[in-house]
């Protein structure tokens, strides 16, 4: 197994990247049969790593290791667990350049954006280092004089984590921070396209002094087999998954036999609404940030942009002008604003959505074709006069395509915005406070951005409603999904 010289030569600390998975404190460089898989840089197609193709057998071994390590970890004081998370947080920030480099190489996003993701993930470790010391139970009034009622909160146990390729550092940090903070053990499976950020985090877990077996990392191509192994093992008490709604449904079915506790952050189809009284400059800037961050490959990015009739043309002109200034390219090149699509399938979906819209009457006002920056790059694209019968209205594009819909009334746009099975994030720009309250309460989404296009932070509960998922990550509520509540009735007092 190997990491390419092209990647290692960019790192101040090449030891961050063993070409291996981690089970029970042992780095696994080879699996029985010798199967391997390659990791490539989507910006140029170059192979940057060859890793062991771990699977169900290694997953079962990792669950066993986590099961043995968890009880001793849970028995430590909250202050001790907090100190370990704080040390991990500090190590991440000390290596932010290397971690950003790894992320840009395997995922493609611009280097500055990659470092921002690393810091964002570290913020969750800091947050839950503090929250770990605030997991509290209750003493409730008893119904009889000789009894006392206690409520305890205890760690759920071993937690499986399956993370996506679009935020390979932050999504893992956001899940592992509350789990480790409250006393759980972890078996993590990163996306096969982007396992290197997770390997580096595992290495830093070692350096932070986490006990062997507490954090385990499975790298491999066969996600379905690994997920099934997690769901079938009764020693694993919870699974946290970020990815598609289709896979979320499969995991729910597979975990049903032993009532596996699940946290699911699934697909989105975010509306971005601009009302007549909005600050147009601010709205256009917010829409650019929301739509084109990570080349539109985020579950919370603006997927449908609704603009009220009175300002539609002015907004469309301003937004398209800003989109044309964005520069796609290799993430390490100065001045690049947007990286590539993750793979050929992602590019094909973008092209299909644009072709479908144009065939049904949409007007192309910016972009609309592949970029000359490389094979997987697509130009920042803006389409006017998009209608509800187009794929862009119903499906999550996951690419740098902004469809502009026209609407007239508040009631009309709320109905259109809610006309989806998904309910992760929504955004709108308005100045009228009565409108702000009405729309915020009426939108069927777990997260609402009002006069802002960026909503994620470690202090807020991240998650959706409807078919966008179950549970919340981050905030003081984020620890609850990793805890069990126990009622104790003391009699004869």
From TrEMBL:
Output one GO BP term: gamma-aminobutyric acid catabolic process
Every copy of the Aldehyde dehydrogenase domain together lies at 35-488
The record's SUPFAM superfamilies line, in alphabetical order, gives: ALDH-like (SSF53720)
Top-level taxon of origin: Bacteria
Annotated Gene Ontology cellular components are: cytosol
Check the record and name the CDD domains matching this protein.
Answer: ALDH_F5_SSADH_GabD
Keywords from the UniProt entry: Oxidoreductase
Active-site feature positions: 265
The terms under GO molecular function for this entry are: succinate-semialdehyde dehydrogenase (NAD+) activity
The record's section on InterPro entries has: Ald_DH/histidinol_DH, Ald_DH_C, Ald_DH_CS_CYS, Ald_DH_CS_GLU, Ald_DH_N, Aldehyde_DH_dom, Aldehyde_DH_Superfamily, Succ_semiAld_DH
Family stated for the protein in its record: Belongs to the aldehyde dehydrogenase family.
UniProt xrefs under NCBIfam families = SSADH
User: Per its record, how is this protein called by name?
Assistant: NAD-dependent succinate-semialdehyde dehydrogenase
- Give the species: Roseitalea porphyridii
At the highest ranks, the source species' classification is: Bacteria, Pseudomonadati, Pseudomonadota, Alphaproteobacteria, Hyphomicrobiales
């Amino acid at each position: 197994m190997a990491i390419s010289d092209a990647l290692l030569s960019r790192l101040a600390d090449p030891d961050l990247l063993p070409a291996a998975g981690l089970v029970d404190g042992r780095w696994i460089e080879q699996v029985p049969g010798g199967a391997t898989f390659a990791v490539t840089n989507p910006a140029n197609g170059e192979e940057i790593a060859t890793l062991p193709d771990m699977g169900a057998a290694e997953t079962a071994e990792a669950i066993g290791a986590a099961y043995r390590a968890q009880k001793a970890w849970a028995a430590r004081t909250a202050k001790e667990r907090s100190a370990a998370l704080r040390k991990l947080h500090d190590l991440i920030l000390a290596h932010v350049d290397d971690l950003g480099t790894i992320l840009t190489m395997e995922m493609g996003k611009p280097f500055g954006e990659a470092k921002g993701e690393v810091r964002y993930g570290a913020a969750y470790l800091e947050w839950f280092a503090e929250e770990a010391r605030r997991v509290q139970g209750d003493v409730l009034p008893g119904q009889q004089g000789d009894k006392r009622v206690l409520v305890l909160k205890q760690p759920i146990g071993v937690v499986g984590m399956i993370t996506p390729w679009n935020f390979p550092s932050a999504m893992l940090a956001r899940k592992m921070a509350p789990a480790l903070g409250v006393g759980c053990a972890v078996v993590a499976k990163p996306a096969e396209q982007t396992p290197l950020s997770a390997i580096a985090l595992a290495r830093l877990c070692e350096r932070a002094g986490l006990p062997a077996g507490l954090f385990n990392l499975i790298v491999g191509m066969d996600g379905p087999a690994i997920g099934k192994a997690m769901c079938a093992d009764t020693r694993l008490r919870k699974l946290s998954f970020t990815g598609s709604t289709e896979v979320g449904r499969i995991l729910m079915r597979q975990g049903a036999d032993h009532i596996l506790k699940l946290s699911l952050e699934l697909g989105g189809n975010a509306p971005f609404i601009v009302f007549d009284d909005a600050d147009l400059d601010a709205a256009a800037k917010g829409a650019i940030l929301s739509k084109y961050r990570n080349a539109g490959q985020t579950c919370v990015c603006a997927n449908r942009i609704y603009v009220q009739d009175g300002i539609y043309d002015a907004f469309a002109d301003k937004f398209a002008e800003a989109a044309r200034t964005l520069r796609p390219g290799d993430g390490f090149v100065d001045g690049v604003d947007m990286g590539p699509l993750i793979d050929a399938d992602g590019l094909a979906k973008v092209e299909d959505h644009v072709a479908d819209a144009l065939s049904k009457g949409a007007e192309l006002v910016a972009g609309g074709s592949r970029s000359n920056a490389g094979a997987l790059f697509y130009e920042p694209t803006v389409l006017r006069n998009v209608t509800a019968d187009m794929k862009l209205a119903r499906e999550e594009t996951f690419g740098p395509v902004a469809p502009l819909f026209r609407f007239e009334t508040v009631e009309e746009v709320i109905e259109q915005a809610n006309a989806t099975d998904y309910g992760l994030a929504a955004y709108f720009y308005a100045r009228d406070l009565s409108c702000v309250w009405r729309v915020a309460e009426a939108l069927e989404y777990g997260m609402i951005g009002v006069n802002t296009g960026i909503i994620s932070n470690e202090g807020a509960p991240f998650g959706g409603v409807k078919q966008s998922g179950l549970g919340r990550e981050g905030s003081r509520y984020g620890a609850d999904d990793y805890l069990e509540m126990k009622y104790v009735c003391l009699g004869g007092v």
